[in-house]
Amino acid sequence: MGAVPSGPSTVGSRGYGGGVIRRALSSDAAPPAELAARTFRDTFGAPNRAEDLAQHLARAYGECPQRDEIADPNLVTLVAEHDGALVAFAQLRSQAPTAPLDASRPIELWRFYLDTAWHGRGLAQDLMAAVLGEARAMTADALWLGVWEHNARAQAFYRRQGFSAFGAHTFLLGEDAQRDVLMVRRRVDPP
To answer: Distance (Å, rounded) from C-alpha 138 to C-alpha 184?
Structure first.
């Protein structure tokens, strides 16, 4: 996949109260790292061991890793802002799944995080529309993701967005091997 330019251009905004969804800049690294760590802790903290969660957060989320990810030409990071504050972000990467998938150009929806205050307000749908636009620009013929088997809310959202299960893989949270359901949307046309 070629480099996807980053910049301040708006890639979508359809009604979550005047916010903007755009590609991330390297200067955007700290807010997504903080949002990802907070939402991951809020969503997965209670049912998991504190030491496994801490190990994962230290490895996966931080300003330096996030800056590297934003600069990576094989990743696209989208940020959603409202009144100048980051309220959501998503990351796509050129990556084939570990389970068989009949697709020649699969793109992974690697991360999709919303501040909990924005759940149920239309932002997730707007961010997904922007994700699908990026997947089309990347000439994807399938968009896939992994979602924790116990995260029923996320699975239901993805099903409403046209995804269906096609397999599973192991997600290592610290030292704990967990099962993710793999889901795919075979058409990246708008919903």
So the answer is: 16
